[in-house]
Design a protein that fits this description.
single chain, 590 residues, alpha/beta, Gyrase A, domain 2, Rossmann fold, four-stranded antiparallel β-sheet, four-stranded parallel β-sheet, 20 helices, globular, binds arginine, Rossmann-like_a/b/a_fold, DALR_anticod-bd
Length: 590
């Protein structure tokens, strides 16, 4: 069945249509006044239309006529005309009951769209060998949520980590390794044999080699030149260097899989910039032949400004040195995705500071005729700042390492749990697991509940609070319902058919009913905060219901117990379903 809102919407539209007005003006929405859950403001618009036709009708009269038509519908509980002609709508209890029972059997009822698409989500974006920064964390958390939300709508969604593995950092690694271990076969031009399958470096080596080289290069131009040359030779296909790159990527991917895995983030594709290198020569030929790419001051560019006034700088395909750039690999990736996947849409979940880069790349791809502009979307986001208002750094002032951040959250969660005595009765292992989940939920929810584009301040103390709009508050709501269900089972009370009676029950069903709309909005604009709001609202509605309607008390009649318990169960399924879409996992108890 459709949602309660769309059921009522249908009734109102039919009534206005029958009165000779366009159906659209009768759209029903959640009310912002407290009188009834929904409202229809069609009468005001209808009066305007009537006036244009030369009729003189009062909007209250139109509202009265519409109400007379709507009343007959079994979906309607109560109708009331307010002010100049607002129609306040209360749905029939039977409708609430039917919808609640439906959600009980299928928490995802009404989420799927009718036209599934193939969508690539480009997120994560970690750079091989370079430490992650906070932007990578946000990209991973937001991208994962967006991916799951779109999947819940039935789309085929492919998440690609798109690693940065083709830049100067590779030249730094290669040249530094060459200084450390010059006798490795990778550096011997006369070496003909196969290279060892075993990597000559570990992740620790990479973590040491990169900063060593990049620090030296900062103050030593000759050292920088070595890295530049190594990068150029790698990019022009020097055999030993390519073999090294493969090792670096394998070693990094293994480490990134662990890091992202700990964060609960999974990718379908582990591709990167280096993967598309073989496509670049043909792509450049095509763009040149089509007259889209042109030589400008020795560089190869695509002009993408729209008109004289538009100052958007050109896409840089090849630098004057012939080097391939960030624009080039992103364009080649678009070619790769077109041939390998042919997606309906590609969404880039990347720091807002790269907005210009994507605008340029998208315009280039459109100009080349590979994509339509509305197939490409940059879902940018603001930064996670420290208390000083600058992008968050570790206490030592270093760039963020994901593990460090997770440790901070874990500690904050553990302290919070200890201070509030939550879970004190469990053994150490379970307490540690609870702290891990609470810390992660705190971090993710804090990140996701903001409007994507806003900056926010990293505040583990506030994120881990059990009160307010936080991850831990939501986990607590989930765990509380689970514990009610366990207690019910131990008492032999079973969930039955839901029968909606109390006001707080009605409110709860109306909250649950809004899930589909929240998902739709969140998916439409790639804004998971809308889903966060929804989940928070459901948790609050549940709290009010439970305070008002005890479930397992002995003075509650058995069929009422069964109904309330079932409503609690339906709430739990939706909370868990929604939290899962946000990538948040709740413990069984705490
Ligand atoms: N590796 C890039 C960085 O660290 C992010 C990659 C984003 N995705 C893309 N297709 N450009 O800034």
């Amino acid at each position: 069945m459709p949602s309660i809102l769309s059921e009522l919407d249908g009734v109102a539209r039919a009534a206005f249509e029958a009165l000779g007005y366009p159906a659209e003006i009768a759209a029903v929405r959640e009310s912002d006044r407290g009188d009834a859950p929904y409202q229809c403001n069609g009468a005001m618009a209808a009066a305007g239309i009537a006036k244009k036709r030369g009729e003189k009708v009062n909007p209250r009269d139109i509202a009265a006529q519409a109400v007379a038509k709507m009343e007959a519908s079994p979906a309607i509980g109560q109708l009331e005309i307010a002010g100049p002609g607002f129609i306040n709508i209360t749905p029939a209890s039977a409708l609430l009951t039917a919808r609640a029972n439906e959600l009980l059997s299928d928490p995802a009822a009404g989420l799927a769209t009718e036209t599934p698409q193939t969508i690539v989500i480009d997120y994560g974006g970690a750079n091989v060998a370079k430490p992650m920064h906070v932007g990578h964390l946000r990209s991973a958390v937001l991208g994962e949520a967006i991916k799951r939300i779109l999947r819940a709508q039935g789309h085929k969604v492919i998440g690609d980590v798109h690693m940065g593995d083709w830049g100067l950092q590779m030249g730094h690694l290669i040249s530094e390794l060459a200084e450390e271990q010059p006798t490795l076969p990778y550096f011997d031009d006369d070496y003909q044999g196969a290279y060892p399958s075993e990597s000559p470096v570990t992740m620790e080596d990479l973590a040491r080699l990169y900063p060593a080289a990049s620090n030296k290069a900062k103050s030593d131009a000759d050292r920088m030149e070595l890295s530049r040359v190594a990068t150029a030779q790698l990019q022009s296909g020097r055999r030993g260097y390519r073999a090294l790159l493969d090792h670096f990527i394998d070693v990094s991917v293994a480490a990134l899989k662990v890091g992202y895995g700990n964060l609960g983030v999974e990718f379908d594709l582990w591709k990167g910039e280096a993967c598309v290198d073989p496509l670049i020569p043909d792509m450049i030929e095509e763009l040149k032949a089509a007259g889209i790419a042109e030589v400008d001051d020795g560089a190869l560019i695509i002009r993408v400004n729209e008109g004289e006034k538009d100052k958007t700088p050109p896409v840089m395909l090849l630098a004057r040195t012939g080097a391939v750039l960030y624009h080039t690999t992103d364009l080649a990736t678009l070619v790769d995705r077109k041939t390998e996947i042919n997606p309906d849409k590609i969404v880039y979940v990347v720091d807002q500071r790269q907005a210009l880069h994507f605008e340029q790349v998208f315009r280039g791809a459109v100009k080349a005729g590979w994509y339509d502009r509305d197939q490409l979307f940059h879902a940018g986001f603001g930064t996670m700042n420290g208390k000083d208002g600058k992008p968050f750094k570790t206490r030592a002032g270093g760039v963020l390492r994901l593990e460090d951040l997770m440790d901070i959250m874990n500690d904050a969660a553990r302290e919070r749990l200890e201070a509030s005595g939550i879970g004190a009765e469990f053994d150490a292992e379970e307490r540690a697991e609870i702290a891990r989940k609470v810390g992660l939920a705190a971090l993710k929810f804090a990140d996701l509940q903001n409007q994507r584009m806003t900056n926010y301040i990293f505040d583990p103390e506030r994120f881990t609070a059990f009160e307010g709009k936080t991850g831990p508050y939501l986990l607590y709501a989930v765990v509380r319902i689970k514990s009610i269900l366990r207690k019910a089972a131990s008492m032999g009370v079973e969930a039955g058919v839901i029968d909606i009676q109390a006001d707080t029950e009605k409110q709860l069903v109306l909250s649950l009913d809004a899930y589909g709309r929240a998902i739709e909005l969140a998916a439409d604009k790639y804004v998971p905060h809308v889903l966060c709001e929804h989940i928070y609202r459901v948790a609050q509605s549940f709290s009010r219901f439970y305070a008002d309607c005890p479930i397992l008390a002995d003075d509650v009649a058995p069929e009422v117990q069964a109904s309330r318990l079932a409503l609690a169960k339906a709430t739990l399924s939706q909370l868990e379903h929604g939290l899962n879409l946000l990538g948040i996992e709740a413990p069984d108890r705490m």
